[in-house]
Amino acid sequence: MKREQTPLILVFSTAYLPHIGGAEIAIHEIARRAEKLRFLIITSRFSRGLPKYEESGNIIIRRVGLGIKFDKWFLPIAGYIAGKKALQGNKSVLLWGVMISQGTLAAYFLKKRYPKTPFIITLQEGDSEEHLSKGKLGLINYFWRRILSRADGVTAISEYLASRARTYGYRGDISVIPNGVDEKYFEARRVISRIKAQELGISDAEKIILSVSRLVPKNGVIELLHAFYILHTRNMATRLLFIGDGSEREPLEERARAWGLGRAVLFLGALPYEELISYYAMSDVFARPSRSEGLGSAFLEAMGAGVPVVATPVGGIVDFLKDHETGVLVKPGDPESIANGIEELLTNNPLREKIIKNARALVIEKYLWVDIAKKMESILLEARV
Length: 385
Hints:
The chain is α/β, with parallel strands linked by helices and 385 residues long. The protein has two domains: 3-180 and 368-384, Glycogen Phosphorylase B (Rossmann fold); 183-366, Rossmann fold (3-Layer(aba) Sandwich), CATH 3.40.50. It has 14 helices and 14 strands.
């Protein structure tokens, strides 16, 4: 098939790689596998160190803005202009907005200007219901309703987010297509990763508790640190690794020092996505006691890598995590409950092995990117007709 005959998907996302989040990873994993399509990803630049234009295989990245942290506020207009230019040069085009944010607002404006162009929205939001609703007269409420009213189709990564679309007035068909896991996570080598652990000063006798997330209140990071302190008082030989950055990092570090945790807690910052697999492989428990969650790709990655998960029954987590079957559920905002859940997985080997086996089987059955990408490619092709 000639390149000019291949359908073009205009992807609108407020952020994209190298910024790491569920939405950014999903776009990358789907686009690189959907070989029947071309993708033009229109996103904020955020940094002058990032190129305005990149092309690899069937993916083009167009970063717009001044290369500053406020670029996302210019994206509705700058993204509209970039999208309009692409529409004028192509006959077979579809608009794909990922998350209802500044990027999808640009797609919404294009849909109003070119109403015959198909417009698909994928909901990836992990914010709480309180944040999403903001009252009936709130701006977020208003834009969700306006943007969804123009959509020709909606996909959601969880039943929770599909329900949210209904709450905000969408009455069309909704396909639940989750985020996934790369097959390489099943090949994670624990022995090699333990060598990396030793480089971090972690002995073989110490159990590793891993959390991968933005260090923000919604991810329950303060509660996790408190739970770890409780484990520390129980004289358990454990280390806590935080991978990620955010507004709570400094308060977390201060509290860790105040509680005398010292080197027992390591703050590794935001790491390149391709490095995360080795940290999953070295870990004994993955814990993220979220207050809200659209789905939670990091949980699935941990499950694929054979790391038992401690989580809370919020948002899309309940789609895949069944208590004492595919993970351990704990009470949101309750450090004692979180500590008990972690301790149970560290000390109950039969339960641990059962959860690892069940969780990996579930990921293989429902959450591999190779299968998810095919489903999304089919939806995008059908919507274009």
